[in-house]
Write a structure and sequence with these properties.
The complex is a heterodimer of chains A (114) and B (111). With 114 residues, chain A is mainly β. Chain A is built from no helices and eleven strands. In chain A, the strands form two sheets. In chain A, strands 2, 4, 5, 6, 9, 10 and 11 form a seven-stranded mixed beta sheet that branches. Chain A has a four-stranded antiparallel beta sheet with strand order 1-3-8-7, with no helix packed on it. Chain B has 111 residues and is mainly beta.
Chain lengths: 114, 111
C-alpha cells in the first residue's frame, strides 16, 4: 500500500527563521509534490519534482525552495519564514502512468509562523 | 491556467439520502478527473476517477462526465455519517505532471 510520511507533523517557527519540512515515500513514484491548504483557497501547488535531482516551480513558489535528493525524499524549505506562510502543508507522490494522475498524500504538517 | 470550480460549497443531507456534488473545469483537453475525500486533520485520499465521457460506478459511488459541457458530478448513494468530509475534484492532462484541485465541497451527513 502507498505510504507517504511527513515530518514534523506540527511546527511553530519565528518570523525570519528557517524551516524545513520533510517528506518520504515508499511507493517508488517518480513524481512528488508540495501543496499548501488554506481556507478559501483549497490545495495550491508550491513545488513539484519528476525525479531525483529535479525540482520545478508550481503555482505559488515565492518564498519556498525544494530539494529532491533521492527518489524517496522531497523537502520544502522556507529560508525566511513569514506569518503569511502559516498553513497546512501536504506532500504527495504519484505516477503519471497511462495518463492517470492519482496522488497519494501524506498526513500533513501544520506550520505556525509567529 | 486550468480552473476547477466545485458546487455547492457545503451540502447537508440526512443519512440514507443521495449526495450530489458538482465540478466544472475550464479545458476540454483535461484527460483525467479524480475525486478525493478528505477527513478533518487528514490528507486527501483518492476515491474514484473517470477518463471517458459517460459514467462509472463503484459501490455506492457514481461519477458522470460530460466533456462537451466541461462538467463532472459525483453521486453518493445511501449516504452515511462516515461519508462526512470534504470532497475535492482534481483534473489533469495526459503526460502533464500538474494536477489542479477545486476548493472542495463540505459534505455533512446527519444521522
Amino acid at each position: 500500500e502507498a505510504a507517504v510520511t511527513q515530518s514534523p507533523r506540527n511546527k511553530v517557527a519565528v518570523t525570519g527563521g528557517k524551516v524545513t519540512l520533510s517528506c518520504n515515500q515508499t511507493n517508488n513514484h517518480n513524481n512528488m509534490y508540495w501543496y499548501r491548504q488554506d481556507t478559501g483557497h483549497g490545495l495550491r501547488l508550491i513545488h513539484y519534482s519528476y525525479g531525483a535531482g529535479s525540482t520545478e516551480k508550481g503555482d505559488i513558489p515565492d518564498g519556498y525552495k525544494a530539494s529532491r535528493p533521492s527518489q524517496e525524499n522531497f523537502s520544502l524549505i522556507l529560508e525566511l519564514a513569514t506569518p503569511s506562510q502559516t498553513s497546512v502543508y501536504f506532500c504527495a507522490s504519484g505516477d503519471a502512468a497511462g495518463g492517470a494522475h492519482e496522488q497519494y498524500f501524506g498526513p500533513g504538517t501544520r506550520l505556525t509562523v509567529l | 491556467q486550468e480552473k476547477v470550480q466545485q458546487s455547492p460549497e457545503s451540502l447537508i443531507v440526512p443519512e440514507g439520502a443521495m449526495s450530489s456534488l458538482n465540478c466544472t473545469f475550464s479545458n476540454s483537453a483535461s484527460q483525467s478527473i479524480w475525486w478525493y475525500q478528505q477527513h478533518p486533520g487528514k490528507g486527501p485520499e483518492a476515491l474514484i476517477s473517470i477518463f471517458s465521457n459517460g459514467n462509472k460506478k463503484e459501490g455506492r459511488l457514481t461519477v458522470y462526465l460530460n466533456r462537451a459541457s466541461l462538467h463532472v458530478s459525483l453521486h453518493i448513494r445511501d449516504s452515511q455519517p462516515s461519508d462526512s468530509a470534504v470532497y475535492l475534484c482534481a483534473v489533469s492532462r495526459t503526460n502533464a505532471y500538474k494536477v489542479i484541485f477545486g476548493k472542495g465541497t463540505h459534505l455533512h451527513v446527519l444521522p
